[in-house]
């Protein structure tokens, strides 16, 4: 009986984890964080575009490194890309975009890397973060 419950539970988890529409694209407004802040996760199977629009920084730094990580279920997560965003600091409507392709189907998340040249106590405020997994699919 316990084995049947485990198999049914595992099947339900597998079905949920492979259903991409629940997590595919997402948007956050007024996303604030210091170095190391992670975004929510999403499921991707090929390509994504990450947009940061209208940003400011507490101590006047003018760039932020945005790291794309693949969540590895039973191991160390894998960093796929780091993009330095700068144009988003030029006003509320300015936007920086990074795209990645050829990604294996899995769960991904963003992490804020260096702010400026590596200010650990600094924070960024992003007017809008948008992850689109359908642009190049």
In short:
12% of the residues lie in helices and 46% in strands. It has one helix spanning 2-18; strands at 26-34, 42-44, 48-57, 64-70, 78-85, 95-100, 106-115, 123-132.
What does this structure look like?
This protein has 137 residues and is mostly beta strands. It is built from one helix and eight strands, in the order αββββββββ. Strands 1-8-3-6 form a four-stranded antiparallel beta sheet, with no helix packed on it. A four-stranded antiparallel beta sheet has the order 2-7-4-5, with no helix packed on it. A hairpin with a 7-residue loop joins strand 4 (64-70) and strand 5 (78-85). The longest helix is centred in the N-terminal third of the chain and has 17 residues, at 2-18. It is globular and about 35 Å long. The termini are far apart.
Task: Give the SSE layout.
Elements: H1 2-18, E1 26-34, E2 42-44, E3 48-57, E4 64-70, E5 78-85, E6 95-100, E7 106-115, E8 123-132
> Number of DSSP strands?
8
> Measured on Cα atoms, how large is the radius of gyration?
17 Å
Q: Estimate the mean pLDDT confidence.
A: 78
Helical percentage: 10-25%
Point out poorly predicted stretches: 2-22
Strand order of the largest sheet: 1-8-3-6
**Largest beta sheet, briefly?**
4 strands, antiparallel
End-to-end separation: 43 Å
Number of helices: 1
> What percent of residues are in strands?
over 45%
Shape: globular
Broad structural category: mainly beta
SSE order: HEEEEEEEE
Question: Top keywords for this entry?
Answer:
1 helix, 4-stranded antiparallel β-sheet, mainly beta, 137 residues, disordered N terminus
């Amino acid at each position: 009986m316990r084995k049947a419950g485990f198999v049914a539970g595992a099947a339900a988890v597998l079905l949920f984890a492979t259903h991409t529409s629940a997590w595919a694209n997402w948007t956050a407004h007024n996303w604030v964080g210091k170095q190391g802040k992670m975004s929510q996760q999403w499921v991707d199977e090929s390509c994504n575009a990450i947009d940061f629009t209208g940003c400011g920084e507490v101590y006047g730094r003018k760039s932020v490194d945005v790291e794309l990580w693949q969540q590895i279920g039973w191991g160390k997560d894998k960093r796929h890309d780091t993009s330095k965003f700068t144009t988003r600091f030029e006003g509320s409507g300015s936007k920086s975009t990074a795209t990645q392709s050829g990604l294996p189907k899995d769960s991904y998340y963003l992490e804020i890397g260096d702010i400026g040249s590596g200010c650990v106590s600094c924070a960024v405020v992003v007017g809008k973060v948008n992850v689109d997994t359908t642009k190049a699919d």
